[in-house]
Amino acid sequence: MTGLAADRGAGVTVTAMQPYLFPYLGYFQLIAHADVFVIGDDYPWVRAGWINRNRLMERGRARMFTLPVAAAPAQAPINERKLTAQYPAERRRLLSRLHHAYAHAPQSRVVLPLVEQWLPAEATELMTVLRSAIEGVCGHLGIRTPRRLSSERPDRDHRGSTRVIRLVQSFGGTRFLNPPGGRAIYRPDDFAAHGVELAFLDPELPAYPQDGAGEFVPGLSILDVLLRNPRERVQEMVRMGREAAG
What's the confidence (pLDDT) of residue 213? Predict the structure, then answer.
């Protein structure tokens, strides 16, 4: 599955996001709609954010799972964050939770062994696990949008809109595709002044059966989607999402 931006045939669409731990479906919709996806490995650390944690369904309720990250100076970016010595034990605990929570999920025999591969057993750096998880899911779903690291770009000293514009240009982009939350941050005129189009992707999170749950709970980790839906159906879901001009 190639990036959907190729179907549009207008310039090069770049999108960029912090790496998250097995992020939700909308994250992969964003990747699929771009020509280049930039993983923000040198972005600031967000305390109590979603970088090292997410939610799965256990006993009919959405519950958090987390990777243990060592203490570090507040200014240390994501790619300088290390896992604690408890990571191997927490990895085993997470895999056990998944096996218990999704033992009867339709895709458990296919997906659970993959999750073990996507969580490197000997990892010491947080980015090693985050990148492995994102790459693993993309590979499983056939998302061939090239993935790059924001730390690869040479010009990294700017802030705000200028930082994003320079990032897009560094990766050959003429269009920046952003999640809907960016509407409160970025102005189209600022991007247009530098020859970059600003656009947004509103995600679509279709309902699917969640055993033991009452009302459907959207926005869980992509693992819940993968474990409960055939691969072909998830590929259809990834192609969803509505693009809109900035």
Answer: 60
Reading phi first (left if > 0) and then psi (alpha if -120 to 50, else beta), residue 56 is in: beta
Q: Name the pairing type of β-strands 36-39 and 242-245.
A: unpaired
Q: Report the alpha-carbon distance of residue 232 to residue 238 in Å, rounded.
A: 10
Neighbour count for residue 109 (Cβ, 10 Å):
8
Q: What is the pLDDT of residue 9?
A: 54
User: How far apart (Å, rounded) are the C-alpha atoms in residues 12 and 223?
Assistant: 30
Q: Distances in Å between the alpha carbon of 172 and those of 2, 13, 37, 165, 205?
A: 18, 9, 12, 11, 30
Measure the CA–CA gap between 52 and 55, rounded to whole angstroms: 11
Q: Is residue 66 very low, low, confident or very high in pLDDT (cuts 50, 70, 90)?
A: very high
Closest CA to 146 of 37, 5, 68: 37
CA end-to-end span of the chain: 26
170, 147 Cβ separation under 8 angstroms: no
**Sign of the torsion formed by the C-alpha atoms of 68, 18, 29 and 186:** positive
Query: Taking Cα atoms as reference points, which of 174, 152, 199, 147 lies closest to residue 165?
Result: 174
| Angle formed by the axes of helices 231-238 and 126-141, nearest 10° | 100
Q: How far apart are CA 201 and CA 198, in angstroms?
A: 11
The residue type found at 54 is N
Give the tens place of pLDDT for each residue, 222-233: 999 999 999 999
